[in-house]
Design a protein that fits this description.
27 strands; five-stranded mixed sheet; alpha+beta
Length: 487
């Protein structure tokens, strides 16, 4: 398996000296043997997800924690946690500055738990129950991580020794006290979008009370998944490696901006990526290209071995067959709502057709996209000369609503024109005896990116554009898992 990053330095052990002792819950008491999937590990995972999805909450916690420092000494009178740090508040200020540069991870914040990774972490906790520094060699670490499955891509192990609460452990890793010279590796690992697999374990420690191990990996395949895909399991690989019949690293990667042939993995043949094929529709008796098909042929594998991910907000796609990964940079940005994939196992030894909707497809096919029409009653005595668009943001997303512009009833028509939201208004105003003139106006709001129709809804006279989180920019999520259907 690929080499894991060296185990991170243990977090500082905490001494519990509360001024008013707090009664510990049963799950907080250090275990007598190494364990996985107990409430403690579940709480730690929950706190890690909070960190990856709610940066504002972590900023608030760091600012609160900062108040309990006296030079390099930290003493939280609420929890009773006390420790001597190396940097004092300088490390917290560094963390706050780092968080200010981050963007929400969106779907990349998700972490899938694997028993195999958790058992690897459990083995480490058992090994370290009486140790301060890891006795493992790099090869020992690789062997342990490969014992229950196969890691693909980068991996890292975070370790904490002490009886801190899960929330405090995550904050410790984010602060990363004393690690400025090495680039704050724990902090970067917590927020890295490259990790999608996780395993957590904890166990007793003779000096610190508890040792906690978290293994993060870019990809992970359990022995059961490998067997289902017809690939060697860890036991099989170990036998092959002992006999010198295979290379221990079977993960193959490729990056390409043009169609290319991919090297085979295991018993699968080399596949071919073809040229884009236009998909035309008749609009006003003229053909209009509304999408392109990207064919990938000679796959020779079951549907379960394939996956497709839209990356960079629709600028590239990552294609996986078993343990192979190839990234294609797209000729134009694609919305997730206009991307689909269909697998034909009996065509050319297995062909995947990836359908890429054209940019501005709604405008090409439908013209301006009409969202809503409504009327706002006039306000007697009102004199504002133009429409004002009120913009609000909350947990539901972004809300756009016009204020009443004049004392006359005003009709609004709302359109999406590319990435611009247009409020087109009209009202009738007396222009003299028995004369009325219609006053038309338009107010536009430039959006950061064109939203999908599924993101748009109307509540009364308010247009709502939903986002994954309230603090997220209005745009496609960084990555999107595409559902592959089979014909």
């Amino acid at each position: 398996a690929p080499a894991a990053a060296p185990a991170a330095a243990p977090a500082a052990a905490a001494s519990a000296t509360p001024e008013q002792p707090r009664q510990k819950a049963a799950w907080e008491v250090p275990p007598t043997t190494a364990q996985i999937k107990t409430k403690y590990e579940q709480m730690l995972l929950a706190e890690l997800i909070v960190a990856r999805t709610n940066i504002g909450e972590i900023v608030s916690r760091l600012k609160t924690r900062r108040q309990y420092y006296d030079g390099v000494n930290y003493h939280n009178t609420e929890t009773g946690t006390a420790m001597q740090t190396q940097e004092g508040v300088a490390a917290i200020d560094s963390a706050l500055a780092y968080l200010d540069t981050l963007r929400p991870l969106g779907n990349a914040a998700r972490l899938r738990t694997y028993d195999g990774l958790a058992n690897s972490a459990k083995d480490f906790c058992t090994l370290m129950k009486s140790a301060v520094t890891s006795p493992e060699t790099q090869q020992n670490s690789q062997d342990r991580l490969a014992r229950y499955g196969l890691i693909g891509g980068d991996s890292v192990q975070l370790v904490a020794v002490g009886t801190l609460l899960p929330e405090e452990i995550i904050l410790d890793w984010i602060i990363d006290d004393g690690q400025q010279a090495s680039g704050r590796p724990h902090r970067k690992s917590v927020f890295s979008p490259d990790f999608s697999a996780i395993g957590i374990a904890s166990g007793p420690h003779t000096m610190g009370g508890r040792i906690t191990s978290v293994v993060l990996a870019k990809e992970y395949h359990s022995n059961e998944e490998l067997a289902e895909m017809g690939l060697p399991t860890s036991d099989h690989r170990a036998k092959q490696e002992a006999a010198g019949t295979t290379h221990p690293d079977q993960t193959l990667k490729a990056a390409s901006s043009a169609p290319a042939a991919a090297a085979p993995a295991a018993n699968y043949p080399a596949y071919e990526v073809g040229a884009l094929q236009p998909v035309d529709q008749l609009q006003n008796n003229a053909p209009v290209t509304v999408a392109n098909l990207l064919p990938i042929t000679n796959l020779g594998c079951p549907l379960s071995a394939l996956s497709l991910t839209l990356l960079e907000g629709g600028k590239s796609v990552s294609f996986k067959r078993a343990l192979e990964t190839q990234t294609f940079h797209l000729p134009y940005q694609v919305l997730s709502s206009t991307l689909s994939a269909e697998y034909l196992p009996n065509e050319e030894n297995g062909t995947l057709y990836v359908r890429l909707g054209k940019p501005g497809q709604l405008l090409t096919v439908l013209g301006d996209y009409h969202i809503a029409t409504y009327t706002i009653a006039g306000v007697p005595g009102a004199t504002p000369p133009r429409v004002s668009i009120l913009i609000n943001q909350d947990s539901a997303g972004y809300q756009f609503s016009p204020s009443a512009p004049t004392k006359y009833d005003t009709t609004f028509q709302v359109y999406l024109v590319g990435s611009t939201l247009e409020f087109r208004s009209s009202f009738d105003e007396p222009a003299g005896p028995n004369q009325i003139k219609t006053i038309k106006g338009k107010q536009s709001v430039q959006l950061p990116a064109q939203p999908e129709p599924s993101q748009i809804s109307v509540n009364g006279n308010t247009v709502v554009i939903s986002t994954a989180t309230a603090s997220a920019p209005l745009q496609e999520q960084p990555q999107y898992e595409v559902t592959i259907t089979q014909k």
